[in-house]
Amino acid sequence: MRFPGTIPIGAALAVAAAVLVCSAGAAPPASAATRPALRWQSCGAGSDPRSQCATLEVPLDWSNPHGAQVAIPVARHAATDPAHRIGTLVLTTGNFQSNMDMVASGALDVFEQATPDLVSRFDLIGLDNRGRPHATPIAGQTLNCPSPYDPSVNLFPADRAEFDRLVAGNRAIGESCLTATGPFLWHIDPASQAQDVEALRRALGERTLSWLAFTGQADAAREYARRYPQHVRAFVLDEPLGPGSPEQLVAEDAVAKENAFSRFDAWCRGDASCALHGGDPAAAYRTLIARAGTQPVPAAGVDHPLTAYELGTLASYFLGQAQARWDPSQPTDGWQMFAAAIAQALNGRADLFGMLYQYAYSPAYYAGRKAITCVGSPAQRPEYARLRAQIALVRSLAPTTGGVSELWELQTGCLGWPAPPRPQPATDWHLGNAPVLVVAARNDPMVPAAVSTRVARSSTRAALLVSDADGHIAFSHSDCVAKAEQRYLVSRVAPPPAARCP
């Protein structure tokens, strides 16, 4: 099972601060005759003049390479120190965002500050994963899932009727995606995306590639390493999600979020800047969730009062945005905002939660995220008794946060999803014999460290680095991690065994 990753809530937090004060078989052998063509040109008005853009044409279905083709937008930012250029570095660092836009717009400030050698010594490539939005949407090649999110559907169904409604709602979203998007929907899996990147490598004329990927977007990089280890120079997978049964994954995620909340609670008790300082933050949160269970809380800009489940899901995003250690684009600490949001909601308004809601539950993001997840996941039979057992398990493991998490939402969101037109192969999580650095984060509320660690252990050649920093995506919350990732990508020197970033 795979799940998309990082949630870019920095902009939402900035507004809140003002309020306060991506399968078929292996690709066919490449030859000079089949080498894709890239025609580089300006990325347009307002783009970074150091970047160029092009379109990569690849088969819709890699098992039918001469059939229908799709266009994948790509941007390239040339190495700023060409005399010491190492090669090409693929960046897939956002969640349901355009990697092309990130490179084309020059939004590389965080990389230039945290890891300047990556900008100076690599041509940086932003290749849009299938299904992610593009600067200019391409008809039939961008996910269109018009069925909206329904807040009345209970993802912790209390009885068979609620369970049946959950399954029917998932099926409706899937069918709306298929009706609006067409066959493209069934070809947004990690294997197809990995083969797109192999086509890009051939088009660039590179013998090998380097790759920096975060969380959900690490799926395609992992699949590429397994299929094409001979073309891997150095890959970094920052908090990848990996193997595990649905029960194991949601249990580990429940424990991870409960741990993150405990750390938030301890910080708040000891820091006078916390809006809940001097009280009992965990008790305050439990009170809020209990109240919202019977009387949802109104929020500005949201068309309905926020339910207990929605507040619990959005709490993960706040917890995941602990202050970035070096990134000035993070205007405020997510933990401070979380405490203020709880205090505000206890007083009858959930406006701070609502600012995150407008991103996380927007139609373009929510349904598309679900589609990418469900298409790339092994199908699950919608079994009521099994789900009830999972509910009992996660609630026992997470007495404060209740087992509510993004992984829970994404897993339950695939129950009843329409089946693809042909059987999908079982996911092979082995990394292959490729040089890969995997980073796991012990205190991330959204990606359990145990899951990322299993990815690293799937290969005897993979190195593992463990981060103790709080927050989601270790690169963004630990200067130690960012430097270690840069060192590995530049020199291919792995951290020593059992290495940790405090």
Walk me through this protein's architecture.
This protein has 18 helices and ten strands. By secondary structure, it is an alpha/beta fold. Helix 1 runs antiparallel to helix 12 (351-360). The two termini are 30 Å apart.
Question: Quick recap of the structure?
Answer:
With 502 residues, the chain is of the alpha/beta class. The chain has helices spanning 10-20, 99-104, 109-114, 116-121, 160-181, 190-204, 218-227, 246-270, 281-294, 308-320, 334-346, 351-360, 363-375, 384-397, 406-412, 449-456, 474-477, 479-491, and strands spanning 41-42, 51-59, 69-77, 87-92, 122-127, 209-214, 232-238, 436-443, 463-470, 499-501. The chain has 18 helices and ten strands.
Secondary-structure map:
Elements: H1 10-20, E1 41-42, E2 51-59, E3 69-77, E4 87-92, H2 99-104, H3 109-114, H4 116-121, E5 122-127, H5 160-181, H6 190-204, E6 209-214, H7 218-227, E7 232-238, H8 246-270, H9 281-294, H10 308-320, H11 334-346, H12 351-360, H13 363-375, H14 384-397, H15 406-412, E8 436-443, H16 449-456, E9 463-470, H17 474-477, H18 479-491, E10 499-501
Parallel strand pairs: 4-5, 4-6, 6-7, 7-8, 8-9, 9-10
Antiparallel strand pairs: 1-2, 2-3, 3-5
